[in-house]
Fold:
Amino acid sequence: MDAESWFSLAAGPAAQVARDAGALVQLQFTLNFLAVPHLVAGELSAAAQLIDEDRVVADATGNPAVGYAGMLLAAWRGQEAQATEVIEAMRREATVHGQGTLVDLADYASAVLFNGLGRHDAARDAAWQGFQRDGLGYGPFFVPELAEAAARTGDRPLATAVREWLSERTRTAPTEWVLGMEGLARALLSDGQDAEDGYRESIARLGRTRMRAQRARAHLLYGEWLRREHRRADARAQLRTAHEMFASMGTEAFADRARRELLATGETARKRTVDTSTKLTDQEAQVARLARHDLSNPEIATQLFLSPRTVQYHLSKVFAKLGISSRAQLEYVLPDSALPSGTATTGPR
Structure:
C-alpha cells in the first residue's frame, strides 16, 4: 500500500508506447489501468479524460470499450442508475468468462456506490465478497469501504478483522497511506479520546499523500462522530471540509451525504454538483486553445501526445459545449475561465 509508488507506475510511458506502436487494444487496457489511481485519489477529471480516450479508440477500431474504469467513475460520482446498470452487466459478463479480476472490480464499485449513498448494509455485503476472495492487490481497494460499512452496520467482528488486516501491513510497510487507513479503522471501533486521536491521525497521514478521496472520507466520518457526540461546532468544521472536498472532486453522493450531515448540525449547506454539460475538461481546454491559435489537428496531436482522431473527438465535444460549429468561432466564445489555470489566452497567430 505505497500510494506514491503506485502513482509513479501509473505515470509511466506505457500509454504513449502503445500509441506509438499502434497497439490499440493494449492502449485501451493501459488507459483503464492508468485511470484507476486517479479515481481512488479523487482526481475524477483526470480519470475521465483517460476513459474518454478508451471510448474514442473503441469507436475507431470497432472494438468494445474496456469499460471497467468507466464503471468505477460512475460509482465514485454516485450515479446510481448508470453505475448499477454497468456494474451488473460487468459482473454477468465477467462471471460467464471466468474473469475474477473484473468481478472484484464490480464488487468494489458497488461498495463505493453504496457507501456514498449511505446504504452501508449493501456496501458491507459487496465489499466483503471481494475482500474474502483475497485477490492479489485488491485488499487496499476493499479495506476503506469495508471498514466504514462494517462499523456503520454494527458488525464489530468484521470491523475488527479489517483493522487487524491493516495492522499486519503497517508492521511490514508503514507508509502514510496504510497508517492513515489504520488510524481510521481504529477510530471507527473506538470511543472517546481514542476515537478522536484515530480520526486526527488518519486525516494528518492521508493529508501527506495524494489520496484526497480517502482524506475527505476521514473528515466526513470524523464529523459524523462529532455530531453524535453533540459537539456541533466541531462537527461543522469537519463536515464543511468534507463537503467542499467531495463537491470539488465530483463525488456527488458523498458530497450530498456530507451536506445532509451539515444540515443536521443546524448549518445551511447548498447542494453543489459539478456541471459537466458546459464546462470544458482540462484536455478539451488545451485542445481548444491550440485550435484557436490555428494549429491543425496533427500539430495539436503532436504537442499533446494524442492521435489526430482523439483531437477531433475532443474538438467535437468543445463545439457542442460552447454551441459553435467551427474553429473560427473559438476566438469569440471561448472564455478565459474555460482554460486551465496558467494557460495563456493570447499567442501567435
